[in-house]
Write the structure tokens for this entry.
Amino acid sequence: MPKGMEASNHTRVSEFIIQGLFDQPYLQGMFFGVLLCLYVMAIKGNSLIILAILFHPPLHTPMYFFIANLAMVDILCSSSVLPKMLQNLMQEKKTISFNDCIVQLFAFTLPMGTEVVLLTAMSFDRYVAVCHPLRYVTIMSKPVCIMLVTGVWAIGTINSLVHAFLMVQLDFCGPNLIQHFFCEIPPLLALSCSPTHLNEIMVFMADICLGMGGFLLPIISYGLIILSILKIKSSKGKRKAFSTCSAHLVVVTLYYSAIIYTYIRPTSSYSLKKDKLVTVLYTLVTPALNPLIYSLRNKEVKVAFMKLLPFTR
């Protein structure tokens, strides 16, 4: 029976049941503790990064301006999923209302799309810093950086609004079990009893434009960076040039490894259990690790952290 006919014979779903991440009820307490620790690490670490960049003048540079925005994106990404997930771990019945589900979908899709474009902008910044150091201040001026970041957030917001709006137009009148631990697009589309062709087209376009485009541009940037570094004669100069982009390269590798595995692949290879674990990687583990990656080998960030410690205790 066509989806449209099914919609007319059923009552519209008002809430969804969330399957959750783990199937072992006796381990829920342990999982709650681990996830809460990671969430606190992500929030505190990224908040500290933002405060350090905001109040430490030596960090008022384009690179750290982008890093501060990345920290905000990571906070939004973790906060869109983890609070509800932690609440459900402590409840026997794991439910979420239809409206809250759409809000969560929007809140999750926003940082995801924004981060893809932001990492591309950060790759361009590192390309200019290594390949055109004498023109760096001119090219990456304050107005240019503000314009880039504004465009990044605008693209992420528009992308998220489109997916949320199209999801609201669908009918959900049959099974209401979301086979995931939060409201994400693929599991929701699987529950719809109305045609989802337009939603699938927009997801595909987002994957191609944001996902593949955001993946290829950093690769091109780092290809040019590597060629530029190889031309440097002194080993000290090569190490210095590589150190300016090594942290960002690690972040890009971690993020895109998870994203490509989850989204940029055939639907037929979709594996619920594996995909849920990979989702934890980019919604919680990566946001918790990013502050460490950007601060461990950076003297200026460590100095800024030390100045902030008396105020954050």
In short: The beta strands are 15-18, 95-97, 177-178. The first strand starts at residue 15 and ends at 18. The mean pLDDT is 82. The chain has one domain: 3-312.
